[in-house]
Design a protein that fits this description.
Structural class: mainly beta
Number of helices: 1
Oligomer: single chain
Strand content: 35-45%
Number of domains: 1
Distance between the termini: 68 Å
Radius of gyration: 19 Å
């Protein structure tokens, strides 16, 4: 009996420490350690020699403000933002909140229901070469890091697709493993696309 209790306490401690580590990673990625790595520009602006353009886009859905009154956060408000960090320089991506109530478009649609849609979009100029990109959602304690290789004079789009948390409403065994925006963003899938000139 004592070994079961000890095992449960150790598992609970590991979960709490893991969540705390995620929060610390997000907070650490929110602070710039360097500057002059990237500069926001108008999409399609002429590029100086040695530089490339990287457009970062993401469309995601969150719950409305006040849905969880005991948990204070910026979901559903204009203050909800993503943190974009490139090679140690951090910047905030903001999107205008738009209320969206949509029917499921397919079986297990993670974005079906009443919530707030955000479209994040920015264009930045970077030196050619390899760069480490980190995207974080501070209110969701979610972060993802990847490397991108950019060629001089080229334009790229980095698409950030949200990965939502597991749904708690499991009505039938067929719906185990389904995700939903009400459970928050748990990460992102990053896809780099080169634009045809």
């Amino acid at each position: 009996m004592n070994s079961i209790v000890i095992t449960m306490v150790l598992l609970a401690s590991a979960l709490v420490c893991g969540c705390a580590a995620d929060r610390e990673a997000v907070r650490a990625g929110s602070v710039s350690r360097v500057s002059d790595i990237f500069r926001e520009v108008t999409e399609g602006a002429p590029l100086p020699p040695g530089y490339a353009e990287l457009r970062v886009v993401s469309s995601l859905k969150t719950h409305r403000q006040g849905l969880f009154p005991l948990h204070q956060d910026t979901h559903g408000t204009p203050d909800y933002a993503l943190i974009l960090t490139i090679d140690g320089e951090a910047g905030r991506l903001k999107g205008a909140p738009v209320r969206e109530d949509c029917e499921p478009r397919r079986l297990r649609d993670p974005e079906a229901g009443d919530g707030i849609r955000y479209l994040f979009r920015t264009a930045i100029r970077l030196k050619e070469g390899s760069h480490t990109v980190t995207v974080a959602s501070p209110d969701d304690d979610a972060t993802v890091t990847g490397d991108v290789a950019l060629a001089e004079g080229e334009r790229y789009t980095l698409v950030l697709s949200p990965v939502y948390g597991m749904s708690a409403n499991r009505l039938r065994p067929a719906f185990y493993g389904s995700t939903g925006f009400l459970q928050g963003v748990r990460g992102f899938r990053m896809v780099l696309q080169e634009e045809a000139l």
